[in-house]
Design a protein that fits this description.
The protein has about 140 residues and is mainly beta. It has a single domain (about 35-135), classed as Beta Barrel (Porin). Helices cover about 15% and strands about 45% of the residues. The protein is globular, with a radius of gyration of 21 Å. The model is unreliable at about 15-20 and about 20-25 (pLDDT under 50).
Length: about 140
């Protein structure tokens, strides 16, 4: 009969072996120094209203710093009022942060992949919205 200590040690050894044999998951590789274009929706979380829409255009440099613009194309009133707004931010792994305008009071934080961005848009009045973007450019 095996003791609990022996069973525990064998279980840990098996888990370590399985973990070491598992293939590494490749990191999301976002193209650098290339214009990227995303069709976006900002969706109110607690109201049944139409989303705001816009196009997010940006480049990411080799250090992961993002610069570009938001081109609002909503058919309903939104906080951007049909404007073109400068954006900046950064990408680290699959995390993205985008600040809108020079004050950065409107911010998106989320996950970026080859297909798009899923995250949350934060406004200075503590309102949050779902943010969804589909990448429309390919290399």
């Amino acid at each position: 009969m095996l003791s609990m200590r022996t069973i525990y040690a064998m279980t840990l050894a098996c888990l370590a072996l399985i973990t070491s044999l598992a293939p590494a998951v490749p990191a999301t590789e976002i193209p650098r120094n290339t214009q990227l274009i995303y069709e976006c929706q900002v969706i109110p979380r607690y109201r049944k209203t139409a989303p705001w829409t816009g196009v997010l255009l940006f480049k990411v440099n080799d250090e992961g710093i993002l610069n570009g613009e938001w081109r609002d194309n909503s058919v309903r009133p939104d906080p951007f009022y049909g404007s073109i707004i400068l954006v900046n931010g950064g990408i680290s792994g699959d995390f993205i942060k985008v600040r809108f305008g020079t004050s950065g009071e409107v911010t998106v934080k989320g996950k970026i992949s080859d297909e798009g961005i899923i995250g949350t848009l934060y406004q200075p009045n503590n309102k949050t919205y779902d943010f969804k973007a589909v990448r429309v450019t390919r290399e």
